[in-house]
Structure formats: C-alpha cells, structure tokens
Amino acid sequence: GAVVSQHPSRVICKSGTSVKIECRSLDFQATTMFWYRQFPKQSLMLMATSNEGSKATYEQGVEKDKFLINHASLTLSTLTVTSAHPEDSSFYICSARDYRGNQPQHFGDGTRLSIL
Amino acid sequence: QKEVEQDPGPLSVPEGAIVSLNCTYSNSAFQYFMWYRQYSRKGPELLMYTYSSGNKEDGRFTAQVDKSSKYISLFIRDSQPSDSATYLCAMSLTGNQFYFGTGTSLTVIP
User: What confidence category does residue A5 fall into, taking pLDDT thresholds of 50, 70 and 90?
Assistant: First the structure.
C-alpha cells in the first residue's frame, strides 16, 4: 500500500526556534500534499495544500510567514514552523495523494511538536 | 451547516459485537468516500475507499454509501480490542479537496 513517511515524529525545543518537518511519499509520486494540525481529541484542521513546483495554498487564518511550505519534488514536502512559540505546540500531520487521478489521501504518522 | 457530520461518540462495545459508524453529508455532488482509522498519537490510516454508491467489503470491514440519503456507513464485524481507535469519514467531489468528519471514538471492551 501507499506509504507516507513523516519526520521527525517528536520535537521538543525552545521558544523562538524554527522547526522543519519533512513529509515523503515513499512508493508513489505526489503532486499534491496536505498539511494538517490536530488538537487533542479534535479532528484534522487543514492548514495548507502543497503543490509540487508552485506556491502552497493556505487556509483562512493560517499565517503564511509562520508556516513555510516547500514542495520541491514529487516525493517531498516540508513544513517549517518559524520562530515557534508555545501556542504552536500541536500534532502536525501531512498527507499525500498519488499523482494519478482519483486517489485518496495517505497520511504520515504525524509530528508532535512541543515548544517550551 | 457543516459539509460532513459525524457523531463523536464515544462508543463502547463488547468484543465480538458488530459496530456501525456513520456520517451524513450535505453536498450531493460528493463522489469519493473514505474511512480512516486513527490510533492515539498516530496519523490516520486508510481503511476503505469507495467511489459513488454501493458497498465495499474488506475482511471484517464493510463500507456502504447511500447517495440518495447522503449517508455513509462503516460496519465492523467481530470487533476486536485492537479496533479501539478513532474513525474518521472523509469525502471529496473531485479528489482534490477533502472534507473530514470530526471522528468517532470507539472502544472495544475485552
């Protein structure tokens, strides 16, 4: 089955640090990747849609300069949380879709970010 | 009105029971329907993926889509403690934008 690898799985760092999270599709090519944020016992909140070779599309209320997204290849998208603060602490999950049409999203295992 | 409605539960059942999980939706144009299982502190795992109406079976899992009622279901037969998780429904018009339910928390009691 389709596999999406997300790294790192856990990050603990000081306030003001920038954190980069990688999302890779291991056995398929993904023209579109998605970044979600999930709070405890709540559903997924879409932050942005990442398209290979073009700028990401951000959802309303998500700061583009705070959450930098790069999708430089068909198998890799990165999310950088810049100058992270405690309120950015959350569970971040990426997903990817096979470039061939009509495919579902496959999710990574998430990154738990804790800002001290 | 939300695009997708899902009862958050929690739902508790004894081991071996048949579990029924449901979602309703408002947009009759949805064509792609998915069920994901999410364990605590993990990403969602795709369980079932169906296009348009009808049933799909995979082992102990059966997904049903009733487009006339705008209602989808996931049935789990012979439920096991390892099925304890949060189940998310999702749907899409074209496969480019996805709408998720809030998830139903299921506990299967040994």
Answer: very high
